[in-house]
Amino acid sequence: MANILPMKIINQKTPHLLIDKQKAIRNLKKISVKYRNSGIIFRPHFKTHQSLEIGKWFGTEGVEKITVSSVTMAAYFARNGWNDITIAFPFNIYEYYDIAALAEAARICLTVPSPESARLLADICVTDIDVMIEIDTGDGRSGTEWDDFDTIKSCTDILNSNSNINLKGLLTHSGNTYKAKGAGEIKSIYINTVEKINRSRSVLGITNLLISVGDTPSSSVVTDFGNIDEGRPGNFIFYDLMQNSIGSCNPEDISIVAVCPIVDIRRRAGTMVIYGGGVHLSKESVFIDNRPVFGLAVKLHEKGWDFFPGNNFVTGLSQEHGIITCSGNLLNSYNIGDMIGIIPVHSCLTANLMGEYYLFDGTRIDHL
């Protein structure tokens, strides 16, 4: 078998994730320096990696404030020294007492998307806690629409009615940048986002409200962040096929790959079957060449991976099966039992499913 990794890695018999630490650190330095030079708070989203060890890489770059997507994740990082945490997910009243206990040991900031959510929190909150109002500036996922000024004002009034609550600011996620077609469109969406959320703040007339914006595409391509106070990107530490396809990173910036055994080769069909399906890669897709793809095959070697010529995409997934449609002579270069790398479409989801990482020296890195 010619296409295998060193024994330290090959001892992992099932699909697993490899990180090119040098690339990941390079990505981190690039983004952290950009925020630092802009005088803007860098509060990276840790839902991408969910790892204490990788969190240390951020700490080395001076990061002290972080974002997470769940109370469980907040508790995981708070137990291990992180004490300024924004939970960038709508407040869930059923977790209030867990949040209150957490707030005794760390500075916790919650997110409320509506007056109803604000009322639930205001009626029960007996612990000092920070709160951000979530504003929908175009993504359409959650939050109050940026120009629904009466509703936003209602949120502020309800939150201010409870002296335990510190209304910290307005928060938005420009998830619509993930549907952009190129860096120019990403920049246009970002400018529009900043204009909208600043208009929301202006109408409220509360000048000391912090403006928090978070998405990797904007953080990667925008050179002037404009009138914001805080940035919350996360995916940039790894990047992925989606980020590359929309123009927010180059292929050489991607720092994570799934390692999958080849379990069948169907030469007449021009496909190979890998042990690496939806439960490993997720079923998130991007459209390339007018078809959905679920990953990109790459050639693994002892120090990283190389890109094959042509298009060698994962074009089908079931629970454990992945189907790579091959071009050129790729099929003739591999045998059943070889290992092949897959660049994931969405590294956050793939990392969450895999649950751990390895470096190329065999070091294992735990995941929440």
Shape estimate:
elongated
What percent of residues are in strands?
A: 25-35%
The number of helical elements comes to: 12
How does CATH name the architecture of the largest domain? Alpha-Beta Barrel
Distance separating the two termini? 34 Å
Domain count? 2
Structure summary, number of beta strands = 21
Using the CA coordinates, give the radius of gyration. 22 Å
Mean pLDDT over all positions:
94
Largest sheet: 10 strands, mixed
- Would you state the CATH class of the largest domain? Alpha Beta
- Counting helices, strands and paired strands, the structural category is alpha/beta
CATH overall fold name of the largest domain: TIM Barrel
Contiguous low-pLDDT stretches (5 residues minimum) are none
Q: Please identify which CATH superfamily of the largest domain we are dealing with.
A: Alanine racemase
Structure description:
31% of the residues lie in helices and 28% in strands. Strands 1, 11, 12, 15, 16, 17, 18, 19, 20 and 21 form a 10-stranded mixed beta sheet that branches. Strands 2, 3, 4, 5, 6, 7, 8, 9 and 10 form a 9-stranded parallel beta sheet that branches. Strands 13-14 form a two-stranded antiparallel ribbon. With 368 residues, the chain is α/β, with parallel strands linked by helices. It has 2 domains: 7-18 and 255-366, Beta Barrel (Lyase, Ornithine Decarboxylase, Chain A, domain 1), CATH 2.40.37.20; 21-238, TIM Barrel. The protein has helices spanning 7-10, 21-38, 52-60, 71-78, 96-103, 115-124, 149-160, 183-204, 216-221, 241-246, 278-281, 347-354; strands at 16-19, 41-42, 66-68, 84-90, 107-112, 129-136, 144-145, 165-172, 210-213, 230-231, 256-266, 271-275, 286-288, 291-293, 295-301, 304-307, 313-317, 321-325, 339-344, 356-359, 364-366. α6 (115-124) runs parallel beside α7 (149-160).
